[in-house]
């Protein structure tokens, strides 16, 4: 069973001060496109292929899924949607949440997920 990798889109995009706030949707689309290769290759500690899910909220809602990356538009809080996805997975399935949000990490760890920081999915030149 492939590892489920859930990316906190707002947190990862917001970790690099590159003007993302001027085009939140475009920033989320760029992150989604970056995740495609990682879905095939995996992330450090979890070899690919992995099931990659990008959770977006607010102005980034409506970003489309692409082959290799499923995009979930949170109806409310992105953090709440991430916790739901973790809780809904099969109990024995490995799950990693990509975020720097400590409270979100605490919440998903209660369901057995692991957390890694945004640098895990950002290219070396884009790390905050």
What does this structure look like?
The chain is an alpha/beta fold. The protein contains four helices and seven strands, in the order βααββββαβαβ. The strands form two sheets. Strands 5-4-1-6-7 form a five-stranded parallel beta sheet, sandwiched between helices. Strands 2-3 form a two-stranded antiparallel sheet. Strand 6, helix 4 and strand 7 form a beta-alpha-beta unit. The longest helix is centred in the first third of the chain and has 18 residues. The protein is globular, with a radius of gyration of 13 Å. The chain starts with a strand and ends in a 12-residue tail after the last strand. The mean pLDDT is 93.
Rounded to the nearest angstrom, the distance between the terminal CA atoms is 32 Å
Q: Which range best describes the helical content: under 10%, 10-25%, 25-40%, 40-55%, 55-70% or over 70%?
A: 25-40%
Q: Strand arrangement, largest sheet?
A: 5-4-1-6-7
Cα-atom Rg, whole angstroms?
13 Å
- DSSP E strands, number: 7
Structure class: alpha/beta
SS strand fraction = 15-25%
**Unreliable stretches covering 5 or more consecutive residues:** none
* Major β-sheet annotation: 5 strands, parallel
**How would you describe the shape?**
globular
